[in-house]
Design goal:
- The complex is a heterodimer of chains A (526) and B (264).
- Chain A is α+β, with helices and mostly antiparallel strands and 526 residues long.
- Chain A is built from 14 helices and 16 strands.
- The N terminus of chain A is likely disordered.
- Chain B folds into two domains: 132 residues, Periplasmic binding protein-like II (D-Maltodextrin-Binding Protein, domain 2, 3-Layer(aba) Sandwich); 93 residues, D-Maltodextrin-Binding Protein, domain 2 (3-Layer(aba) Sandwich).
- The N terminus of chain B is likely disordered.
- The chains are: A alpha+beta (526), B alpha/beta (264).
- Chains A and B meet through α1, α5 and β8 of A and β7 and α7 of B.
- β8 of chain A pairs parallel with β7 of chain B, so a sheet runs across the interface.
Chain lengths: 526, 264
């Protein structure tokens, strides 16, 4: 390995540095962006989980508070009869349902009546101030569960009492559950009997059992034996949801379905649009399904985020990080590239300027031909070579005839342009190995190395002389000139620079003295 | 000298111990909550292991205890706040240790119940298939690897939570969830033909997890907790706990659940 190669390899590595920095910085940006995105997602997820838990809690607590309210009526009925309408009316009145339990449409009493007691029951109810009391719909069942009171007694709740709810399988299931467990039980989705319009709101009923006073109800058998009726509350689902304590987080779509199958027919409640326009490229919404067992009945809660929730709790830092990181990475890589290549670019500039200076020092500024110094150098090299090899070479002096007249007649600009044209023709006329130089004014020299003999030198001189015969077109002037040439051959006409130059110079003056436009060869050296 | 005093003090404690048990200190009426869960408690039949243990605790302590039925998540919240004194069949973790004391009386393993048509043979296959949803009960914790599975699936939006067990069986049958975590109390549900035919059981390779009486640290002083813990230990010693479990499980399973080393 040459010693020069190591720094070169090092320099190449150095040139890779900006790219390495760009890749590293972009990598770092990606890592930070990914971290931020993950943590935003996590934060959003945890906010969402919290909102879900809160929703579940609020529903559970509200159901519990309604159950508690019914327990109050249940407590009242341990001290009075199921048919004590006034006591129940007054009690419900003091509850101030409107203010405290706005989700409730109705608080009612349902009495269990065996088939054989129907007539006595109807008679008793009519005696209690309901002369039109009848059992409806008519049925031949061996047991009836009859609505005997609805509170608050106003508006829709004034519908005729005596409704038998036992034949309805939905109500019956909850009635039986409440009876057997002595706990509150909720029905599936129903239409309340007081809602007579076709598009009745989604509703549900909550039942609590009432057992005969002073009778045990510790076992299922005892409960079935000693049950006398039920207290119930009827709810419109929308009003129930509106009565929840606290506030639902904005930007969430909530649907509640009856039981576990979220079908349109089971829909109890919906808030928020399920499919709002989402920004393209945004992450999919967070969704969750939770099965809520309230008072022995299952509701399916379906919660999903909307853009509002995401923009509220999400941060947009990830996008900022991506853009800023990419920008900074590019800038830093560019800066490093400037710093690393700065020295190299300065050195290259210096080298270019040095080369230019060197060229200027060795060349004629007008014709760009080598000047006297460079020519002298080449001549000495050629003389040394020819001397070593016993070769010939020739030195030719050339002077334009009557150039001063052209200069004086047409001005220096035309004269200079003519000199440039002459230089070009000279270079075209000589061999590739020959050197043409300008010594100053209208004087040119040609060095012809590795010459076979004086004949070849004279032939080239003649070629040059005739090349300059053709007219020149300079700045619109057609100029015809001639030249005088003196040729000196090494070693015949001189064996060093001085003697050879003098011999060629002498020959040229002889040509000039002879009227110009001719070639003369130097005298043989003594 | 000090050692001798200590020994006589401990002997004295030993002598008055049984006397204390005989005269249980009921400082006030207590509250206890049950939750519906398989054989632990069913409101429909008003019976279950937890109910039996509760009845026995009430009988032995002679204290007035108000028993209510609540969702499990609500029970833990109330135990933490001190509004509820007791619940049953609880398992511990670092967070619960802060606010709850335990009196251990049985331990059991956890199992993943999966739909056969999900093609799942092991835990990794369930976790690896992004289409599969797991159903769990809100606030329930399980054995170590079951907890890990639940936490990962929750982060991946693959968890459907429920406040009770019954909806999970229904949704499993509807194929809305493809798996749920069960315990030996849930085995009777598997006897339903539809469930047995369409599901299989994958075991979590974790040791049995101890379960116990949950006592709120907020409402029960350490001395009070100790006397309730002594009641539980007494029930284990004299075979009454075994009699309760024998009512619900085959003798071998009952024995394996009760034969465990309680954590310190």
């Amino acid at each position: 390995m040459t010693p020069e190669r190591e720094p070169k390899a090092g320099a190449n590595l150095l040139l890779l540095l900006p790219w390495l920095i760009l890749v590293a910085m972009l990598g770092l940006t990606w890592v930070v962006w990914d971290l931020e995105r993950t943590s935003t997602r996590k934060e959003l997820r945890s906010e969402f989980d919290f909102a879900l838990r809160e929703t579940v809690n609020r529903i559970e607590q509200r159901v519990a508070s309604y159950e508690q309210m019914l327990r109050g009526v249940q407590g009242l009925l341990t001290t009075t009869d199921l048919t004590n309408r006034k006591a129940i009316h007054d009690y419900v009145d003091t509850l101030q349902l409107d203010a405290n339990f706005s989700g409730i449409q109705i608080v009612g009493i349902a009495q269990r009546v065996a088939a054989q007691d129907r007539a006595a029951h109807v008679a008793a109810m009519q005696r209690l101030g309901n002369p039109d009391y009848t059992i409806h719909p008519e049925s031949r069942n061996d047991m009836h569960v009859l609505v005997i009171q609805r509170e608050p007694y106003a508006g829709l709740n004034m519908a005729p009492i005596g409704l038998d709810i036992w034949p309805d399988p939905v109500r019956r299931l909850a009635l039986e559950k409440a009876r057997d467990t002595s706990l509150a039980a909720i029905t599936s989705k129903v239409h309340l009997s007081i809602d007579t319009e076709a598009e009745a709101p989604s509703s549900f009923l909550m039942y609590l059992p009432v057992y005969a006073p002073d009778q045990p109800h510790n076992t299922v058998a005892q409960r079935r034996a000693h049950l006398i009726g039920w207290i119930y509350a009827g709810f419109h689902m929308n009003d129930f949801m509106a009565s929840l304590y606290g506030k639902q987080s904005p930007g969430l779509a909530l649907s509640i379905y009856d039981d576990v199958n979220p079908s349109p027919s089971a829909l109890l409640y919906r808030t928020g649009d399920d499919s709002p326009g989402r920004l393209p490229g945004s992450a999919p919404p967070l969704t969750a399904t939770e099965y809520l067992v309230v008072a022995g009945h299952t509701w399916t809660l379906s919660l999903s985020t909307q853009s509002e929730f995401e923009s509220r709790f999400g941060r947009n830092a990830a996008a900022v990080i991506a853009v800023a990181g990419a920008g900074l990475s590019g800038s830093l890589a560019l800066l490093v590239w400037f710093m690393i290549t700065g020295r190299a670019r300065a050195l290259r500039l210096a080298a270019e300027m040095t080369e230019e200076l060197r060229h200027m020092a060795q060349h004629d500024s007008l014709t760009k031909l080598p000047n006297r110094a460079l020519f002298s150098d080449r001549l000495n090299q050629e003389l040394a070579r020819a001397r070593r090899n016993g070769d010939h070479c020739a030195l030719m002096f050339l002077d334009l005839d009557e150039f001063k007249i052209i200069n004086d007649s047409f001005g220096h600009a035309v004269g200079d342009e003519l000199l440039r044209e002459v230089a070009q023709r000279l270079q075209l006329a000589v061999r590739a190995t020959d050197t043409v130089a300008r010594l100053g004014g209208d004087e040119f020299v040609v060095l012809m190395p590795e010459l076979q003999g004086s004949g070849a030198a004279l032939g080239l001189a003649e070629k040059i002389r005739s090349a300059l015969h053709a007219p020149f077109l300079v700045n619109g002037h057609t100029l015809s000139i001639s030249c005088s040439l003196g040729v000196a051959i090494f070693p015949d006409n001189g064996d060093d620079e001085i003697s050879l130059t003098k011999s060629a110079d002498d020959a040229m003056y002889r040509a000039k003295d002879g009227g110009g436009d001719s070639v003369r060869i130097g005298h043989l050296a003594v | 000298m000090i050692a001798r005093s200590l020994i006589s003090f401990l002997l004295a404690l030993g002598a008055i111990g049984p006397a204390c048990a005989a005269a249980f200190d009921c400082a006030r009426p207590y509250t206890l909550a049950l939750h519906e869960h398989g054989l632990l408690y069913s409101a429909d039949t008003d019976s279950g292991i937890d109910k039996d243990v509760t009845d026995e605790l009430i009988r032995r302590s002679g204290c007035k205890v108000t028993v209510s039925l609540l969702p499990r998540a609500r029970i833990w919240q109330l135990i933490e706040s001190g509004a509820l004194d007791f619940s049953l069949s609880g398992i511990s973790n670092a967070e619960r240790e802060r606010y709850a004391g335990f009196a251990w009386y049985f331990s059991n393993k956890y199992y993943l119940l999966v739909r056969k048509d999900s093609g799942v043979q092991n835990l990794a296959a369930f976790e690896g298939n992004e289409r599969l949803q797991l159903g769990t009960i809100r606030s329930f914790r399980y054995s170590e690897s079951a907890n890990r599975l639940v936490d990962r699936l929750q982060a991946a939006n693959r968890l459907n939570q429920s406040s009770g067990l019954a909806p999970l069986y229904k949704t499993l049958m509807l194929n809305h969830i493809q798996g749920m975590i069960i315990e030996p109390f849930d085995f009777p549900a598997l006897e339903a033909k539809a469930i047995r035919d369409s599901t299989s059981i994958v075991e979590f390779n974790d040791p049995s997890v101890p379960h116990g009486l949950i006592m709120s640290k907020r409402s029960l002083a350490p001395a009070e907790q100790a006397q309730w813990r002594a009641l539980i230990d007494g029930m284990r010693r004299d075979g009454s706990m075994r009699r309760i479990f024998d009512k619900y499980f085959k003798p071998e399973l009952a024995a394996s659940m009760l034969d465990f080393q309680p954590p310190p």
